[in-house]
Automatic annotation (TrEMBL), chain A:
The keyword RNA-binding does not apply. It is found in: Cell membrane. PROSITE patterns: ABC_TM1. It comes from the Bacteria. This is Peptide/nickel transport system permease protein/dipeptide transport system permease protein. The keyword Transmembrane applies. It comes from Puniceibacterium sediminis.
UniProtKB/TrEMBL annotation, chain B:
The keyword Ribonucleoprotein does not apply. GO terms for biological process: peptide transport; transmembrane transport. It comes from the Bacteria. Keywords: ATP-binding, Nucleotide-binding, Transport. Residues 7-251, 277-526 form the ABC transporter domain. It comes from Puniceibacterium sediminis. GO terms for cellular component: plasma membrane. Belongs to the ABC transporter superfamily. This is Peptide/nickel transport system ATP-binding protein. The lineage of its organism: Bacteria, Pseudomonadati, Pseudomonadota, Alphaproteobacteria, Rhodobacterales. GO terms for molecular function: ATP binding; ATP hydrolysis activity.
C-alpha cells in the first residue's frame, strides 16, 4: 500500500526573514526604523552642533549652507536638535508601549485564563476605561502627576492599557479553547506551565504586531502632550515640543514647523509599515 | 443516449509563488440524462477542482485546458459565459455557509428566478413553496419567512437543493453534500437526490470521499488520485472487480459496517476484565446566556448517565451530533465539570478532586482530539509536546525524557529524529500519531479518543485505527472511543453504548448490538449508515424520527442493556 502512506504536505514554509523580505512594506518600515535607531545611537557623532547652544550663526537661518536644516528662534541648529530628538522619540515610544504592553497582556491573559468573576471584573473595568478617549485619560493623568516628559510618557502608556488588554484577551481566549491547550490541561499541567509555555508564546506574535503599530500611536500622543505644554519642557529637543514652539513663527520661518512635523510623520510611517510587515510574516501558516 | 455533458482532457494548473502545480490532469467523462456519476478521491485528488473548473469558479491564479461540451458550447473556451444556475447547479458541503445568514429563505429562493427573468415575484414565490414541499420541508410557507440559522443542517441542505432545482438546471454538481451531516440525515438527503434525478432526468455529478455514499447512489464511478483519473466504470464493476491497485486499496481501507471488525475476536477476554472506571448518574446541563438578566435556553447534554469501562476493553460511544457523547468524554477527562454524579477510578471520585490532587490524577486519563491540526502547540517542537506529560509527572532528566520520546515516536510509526520538528511540517495523519504518542507518554490507564479519525482521509484513518488496535493488543490499552461512524466503531470496539439526547439507549457487546439491536433507534441508526456495497437494495433505509424509549436500562441479554 505504498501509494496510500502518509505524505508530508510539502517542505517547511519559508522562514520568517524570507517572508519579511518579500513584503516590501516591511522592508521600507524596517529601513526607516533602523535609520532612526542609527541616528539616535550616534547623535553625538552625527550632530554638527550642540543642540542646546544658542546663537551659533544667527537666528531664523533658512535650510542650506552651514546649517543644513536652518536654525531656530534662538539660533540653535535644527539638524542637531532633530537628531537628538530622535533619542527621546524612540525612548518615549519604547517606554510607553512597554507600559501598556506589559500591563495589557497581564490583564488580558489573566482574564482569559482564570475566567469566572476575575474575567468579569477585569474586562468590565477595561470596558469602562475604554469609554473615555485615550487623550482624556492621558490629560487627566498629567494633570495629577504634573507636566513633565516622564509623566507624559507614563500617561500615554497607561491610557493605552485597555486597548492592549482587550486585544490580548481575545487572542488568549482563542488559544485557551484550542485542543492543544486542553491536551495540556488533561496532561495535568499547572497554571504556570499553561500560561508561560503555551499561552504566552502563542499570543506573543499577535501582540508584537500590535505593539509595533502602537509605537507610532504612542509617539504621536506624547508629541501631542508636549505640543500642549504638558510634556517636554525647555530646552529639551523633543519633536512635539519643537512643533509647539514654532507656532509663533509660522510665517517667518515655516521650516521650524515643517521639519519636526516631517520627522514625526516619517517615524510614524516607519513603525506602521514595520508593523504591517511583521503581521504578514508572523501570521501563522501552520494550518492548511 | 447522448451525453448531456462531455468533458475531455480537462486539466487545471495552479500557479503560486513561481511554481505551477497540476491539480487535475486529463480528466474525461460523460454525464447523460438521469445518470448519477460519482467522482471519488481523497483530499488533494483534484475532484473538487474539476467541479470548480466546470462552474468557472477557479481562483484567478489557476489556468484550465481541455474541453467541456454542454448545450453545444465549450464551457472551458476562453470568454464563454459560465452556465451557473440555469444550466449547471452546484450544491456545497457546508449548508450553513452556503446560504446567506442575513436573508430569509424565501428571499434567497426567489431572488435568482426573478433576476434571471424566469418568473415574476408572485410566481417565483409560488414555485419556491412548491419546491420546498417537493424536497420534503414541512410547512413550507412558514419556512419562507425564516432565516438559515433557524433550520437544522439537513433542512438547510434541502433548501440548497430546492434553490438549485428552482432554476431547472440540466446538471447538478453536489460537492460532498452529506459530509457535514449526521448519518440519518445523510440517508434522507441521498434518497432525495436519487428521487430528483429519477423524476426530472437531470444529470448528477456527486463528488465524495465516502465509498458508502458512492455505493448507495451512483451508477458510474470515476476514481481520482493526485489529479489523475485512476479508474472509471460502472459502480458494480468498480466495487467487485477494481482493476487499479489504488481502487482496491481504497476499498480495503473503508471500514465495513456489514462485517465484523478485527478486534471482535477478543470480546470474550475483554468482557471478563474488571471494572476500571465507572461513571454513575452523571448529568450536565449547558445554559446559553441569553442576556444580562434573562436566563437563556438550557440544553441537557447528559441526563443521568451511568457506564462502566472495563480493564483492557475499547468501549465506543456512538451517537449523532448533540447526543452528549463528547460531553461524557470531557466530563471523564475533567475538561468539563458535571452538575451531578460521580466518576470513580479505583477508589477515587475524579469529579470531587481539586488543584494538586486533580493534576496528579490527570496522569491516568489522557485524551486524543479530533482536529490533528489544532491539537499540537504550533510553537513547540513535537518532542517538547510529547515530553510534556513526562515532564509534569516524573523527575526524569532531559536526556531520559528524550529517550522516552524517541521510543514513543517509534511506537507510533514515526522516527525519533522527528522530535526536533514543528507540527506544521507534518501531515494530518502524522500529527494524529504524534497526539497518540503524547497521550501515551505518561502511561495512562485510560485513553479517551474523541472522533480521532473523522478529520482524516479513509486510507489514513485505516492506518490510525490499525495503530490503536495494535496498542490495545500489545499494551492492554483501555480506550473510550467516541465516534459518529458506525463502521469504524464496529471495527474497533468491544462494546458499544448508543447515545441520544444525553441518554444511553443501548449498551452491549459490539457484535450483539449489530446483529441483534434491540432498541429501535439503534436499528434506525444502523439502517441509515451507507454501506460500500452497490448490490444492496437502495433506498430501503428508514428515516429516524419519532419518540424512542428513553427510560432506565434493563438487561435484555447477558451484558446487553436496553432502555425501556
Amino acid at each position: 500500500m505504498t501509494s496510500l502512506t502518509d505524505i508530508p504536505n510539502g517542505s517547511a514554509p519559508p522562514g520568517f526573514w524570507r517572508r519579511m523580505v518579500r513584503s516590501s512594506n516591511g522592508v521600507v518600515g524596517l529601513i526607516i526604523v533602523l535609520g532612526l535607531i542609527f541616528c539616535a545611537a550616534f547623535a553625538d557623532l552625527l550632530a554638527p552642533y550642540n543642540p542646546a547652544r544658542m546663537g551659533t550663526g544667527g537666528r531664523f537661518l533658512p535650510p542650506g549652507g552651514k546649517f543644513l536644516l536652518g536654525t531656530d528662534e534662538f539660533g540653535r541648529d535644527m539638524l542637531s536638535r532633530i537628531l537628538y530628538g530622535s533619542r527621546l522619540t524612540l525612548l518615549i515610544g519604547a517606554v510607553a508601549v512597554g507600559i501598556s504592553l506589559t500591563a495589557g497582556m497581564l490583564v488580558g491573559m489573566v482574564a482569559a485564563f482564570r475566567r469566572g468573576w476575575v474575567e468579569t471584573l477585569l474586562m468590565r473595568s477595561t470596558d469602562v476605561l475604554f469609554s473615555f478617549t485615550e487623550t482624556l485619560i492621558a490629560l487627566s493623568f498629567v494633570a495629577v502627576l504634573g507636566p513633565s516628559l516622564q509623566n507624559a510618557v507614563i500617561a500615554v502608556g497607561v491610557a493605552a492599557v485597555p486597548f492592549y488588554a482587550r486585544t490580548c484577551y481575545s487572542a488568549a481566549l482563542v488559544e485557551t479553547s484550542k485542543p492543544y491547550f486542553e491536551a495540556s490541561i488533561a496532561a495535568g499541567a499547572a497554571p504556570g506551565r499553561l500560561v508561560f509555555l503555551h499561552l504566552l508564546p502563542n499570543v506573543l506574535p499577535t501582540m508584537i504586531v500590535v505593539a509595533t503599530l502602537g509605537v507610532s500611536t504612542a509617539i504621536l500622543a506624547a508629541a501631542g502632550l508636549s505640543f500642549l505644554g504638558l510634556g517636554a519642557q525647555p530646552p529639551t529637543s523633543e519633536w512635539g515640543y519643537m512643533l509647539a514652539g514654532s507656532r509663533d513663527y509660522i510665517n517667518r520661518a515655516p521650516w521650524l514647523m515643517t521639519i519636526p512635523g516631517l520627522a514625526i510623520a516619517i517615524t510614524v510611517l516607519g513603525f506602521n509599515l514595520l508593523g504591517d510587515g511583521l503581521r504578514t510574516s508572523l501570521d501563522p501558516v501552520e494550518r492548511r | 443516449m447522448s451525453a448531456l455533458l462531455a468533458v475531455r482532457d480537462l486539466s487545471v494548473t495552479l500557479r503560486s509563488g513561481g511554481e505551477a502545480r497540476m491539480l487535475a490532469q486529463d480528466v474525461s467523462f460523460d454525464v447523460a440524462r438521469g445518470q448519477i456519476l460519482s467522482i471519488v478521491g481523497e483530499s488533494g485528488s483534484g475532484k473538487s477542482m474539476t467541479a470548480k473548473a466546470l462552474m468557472g469558479l477557479l481562483p484567478p491564479n489557476a489556468t484550465v485546458s481541455g474541453e467541456a461540451w454542454f448545450r453545444g458550447a465549450n464551457l472551458l473556451a476562453k470568454g464563454s459565459a459560465p452556465c451557473r444556475g440555469t444550466g449547471i447547479g452546484l450544491i456545497f458541503q457546508e449548508p450553513m455557509t452556503a446560504l446567506t445568514p442575513v436573508l430569509t429563505i424565501g428571499t434567497q429562493l426567489t431572488e435568482a428566478m426573478v433576476v434571471l427573468g424566469l418568473a415574476d415575484p408572485a410566481e417565483a414565490r409560488r414555485r419556491a413553496i412548491a419546491m420546498l414541499d417537493r424536497v420534503g420541508i414541512p410547512a413550507p410557507d412558514r419556512r419562507m419567512r425564516q432565516y438559515p440559522h433557524e433550520l437544522s443542517g439537513g433542512m438547510r441542505q434541502r433548501v440548497m437543493i430546492a434553490m438549485m432545482m428552482l432554476l431547472e438546471p440540466e446538471i447538478l454538481i453536489a460537492d460532498e453534500p452529506t459530509t457535514a451531516l449526521d448519518v440519518t440525515v445523510q440517508a434522507q438527503i441521498l434518497d432525495l437526490l436519487r428521487d430528483i434525478v429519477r423524476d426530472t432526468r437531470i444529470g448528477l455529478i456527486l463528488i465524495t470521499h465516502d465509498m458508502g455514499v458512492v455505493a448507495e447512489t451512483a451508477q458510474d464511478v470515476l476514481v481520482m488520485k493526485a489529479g489523475r483519473t485512476i479508474e472509471a466504470g460502472p459502480v458494480a464493476r468498480i466495487f467487485t472487480a477494481p482493476s487499479a491497485p489504488y481502487t482496491r486499496a481504497l476499498l480495503d481501507a473503508v471500514p465495513r459496517l456489514d462485517r465484523p471488525g478485527s478486534s471482535a475476536g477478543m470480546v470474550a477476554g475483554a468482557a471478563a476484565g474488571k471494572t476500571l472506571l465507572s461513571a454513575g448518574h452523571v448529568s450536565k446541563t449547558f445554559h446559553a446566556r441569553a442576556g444580562l438578566f434573562a436566563s437563556g435556553l438550557a440544553t441537557r447534554a447528559l441526563d443521568d448517565v451511568s457506564l462502566d469501562i472495563r480493564q483492557g476493553e475499547t468501549l465506543a460511544l456512538v451517537g449523532e451530533s448533540g447526543s452528549g457523547k463528547s460531553t461524557l468524554g470531557r466530563v471523564i477527562t475533567r475538561l468539563t465539570d458535571a452538575d451531578h454524579g460521580a466518576v470513580t477510578l479505583g477508589e477515587e471520585n475524579l469529579l470531587t478532586l481539586r488543584g494538586k490532587s486533580l493534576r496528579a490524577a490527570r496522569r491516568k486519563i489522557q485524551m486524543i482530539f479530533q482536529d490533528p491540526y489544532a491539537s499540537l502547540d504550533p510553537r513547540q517542537r513535537i518532542g517538547t509536546s510529547i515530553a510534556e506529560p513526562i515532564a509534569i509527572h516524573t523527575t526524569l532528566s532531559r536526556a531520559e525524557r528524550q529517550d522516552r520520546v524517541g521510543g514513543l515516536l517509534a511506537r507510533v510509526g514515526l522516527t525519533p529524529e522527528m522530535a526536533a520538528r514543528y507540527p506544521h511540517e507534518f501531515s494530518g495523519g502524522q500529527r494524529q500519531r504524534i497526539a497518540i504518542a503524547r497521550a501515551l507518554a505518561a502511561g495512562p490507564v485510560l485513553i479517551v479518543a474523541d472522533e480521532p479519525t473523522s478529520a482524516l482521509d479513509v486510507s489514513i484513518q485505516a492506518q490510525i485505527l490499525d495503530l490503536l488496535a495494535d496498542l490495545k493488543r500489545e499494551e492492554g490499552l483501555t480506550m473510550l472511543f467516541i465516534s459518529h461512524d458506525l463502521a469504524v466503531v464496529r471495527q474497533i470496539a468491544d462494546r458499544v453504548a448508543v447515545m441520544r439526547q444525553g441518554r444511553i439507549l443501548e449498551l452491549g457487546p459490539t457484535e450483539a448490538v449489530w446483529t441483534a439491536a434491540r432498541h429501535p433507534y439503534t436499528r434506525a441508526l444502523i439502517d441509515a449508515a451507507p454501506v460500500p456495497d452497490p448490490t444492496r437494495p437502495r433506498g430501503v433505509r428508514r428515516p429516524v424520527s419519532g419518540d424512542f424509549a428513553i427510560g432506565a436500562l434493563r438487561e435484555a441479554a447477558l451484558g446487553h442493556w436496553v432502555a425501556t
